[in-house]
């Protein structure tokens, strides 16, 4: 093993030196720092992604505390992206963090999504923005992982991954198709 950073020791055992190097050189665009996005951001930092762009216009509210990683009584009222960035810096100081505090709207998405991103993660709620983000990623040939509807679902063993065109039970995926 060439990388002696103890933070990534276990990951390196699994994916090797080349895998660690690839993660360190990766730039992930993460839209939405809520219930899905906050946990995703932390996982990306802990696995060694080198650069993350966090996008969310919202502030932490008390109603977020039951399901969002960044939501604590001490963070209520603060911008979600700023709280998440601080948490990532504490976990992985080598990770470069970019913050966008604007609402990701269908009109701004084509300008915000650039070839600089290796992967896009969609963890947003707005149907119009989600649709435009997916279409833009497809047109710009950037891989995208999109979180569909999980609200009101109680059984995590029923979660499935796959191509959106192959989904059958998710109402949100059906609308997006």
Biggest sheet statistics? 5 strands, parallel
User: How many β-strand runs?
Assistant: 5
Distance between the termini: 44 Å
User: CATH superfamily of one domain, called what?
Assistant: NAD(P)-binding Rossmann-like Domain
How many helix segments? 6
Rg estimate, integer Å: 17 Å
> From the helix content, strand content and strand pairing, which structural class follows?
alpha/beta
CATH-scheme architecture of one domain = 3-Layer(aba) Sandwich
Order of helices and strands: HEHEHEHEHEH
C-alpha geometry:
globular
Percentage of β-strand residues: 5-15%
List its traits.
177 residues; alpha/beta; Rossmann fold; 5-stranded parallel beta sheet; 5 strands; globular
Could you describe the 3D structure shown?
- The protein has a domain of 123 residues: 3-Layer(aba) Sandwich (Rossmann fold).
- It contains six helices and five strands.
- Strands 3-2-1-4-5 form a five-stranded parallel sheet, with helices on both faces.
- Helix 5 links the parallel strand 4 and strand 5.
- The chain starts with 8 loop residues before the first helix and ends with a helix.
- The model has no long low-confidence stretch (mean pLDDT 90).
Task: Briefly say what this structure is.
This protein is an alpha/beta fold and 177 residues long.
